[in-house]
Amino acid sequence: MDRQMYHYATVSKALQELAEKGFTTDFNLQEDRIKANFSDFEIVEIYRYEGESDPGDEATVYGIKSVDGQKGVFVAGSGAFEENSAAKLLDTMSIKGREAQ
Hints:
Order of helices and strands: EHEHEEEH
Protein name: Phosphoribosylpyrophosphate synthetase
Largest sheet: 5 strands, mixed
C-alpha cells in the first residue's frame, strides 16, 4: 500500500490539501462506523500537525478511503488515542502499514 505522510504547519492546510484531492467526507462524524468496520477502511495519506509551543496542540489528519470508494478525513487530537477509539484503530493501521514497507 502506498501511504504518504506529510507535515504541514496547520490542520486547516492539511484539510484543504485533502479536500482538493477529493477527501470530502468527515469521518469524525462516523466514528462508530470506523470502530465497527475498521477493516473496511484504508489509510491513504497521513498529515501531522505539531504544536510549536504546546504538545497538546498536536493532531493527526488521516486521509482515508472506504471499501465502497468513499474518501474523507479523520482528525485526531493528541488526547483522542483512547483504547477503544477510532483514532487508536487508525493509528494501529498506520503502524502496520509502516511495518509492511
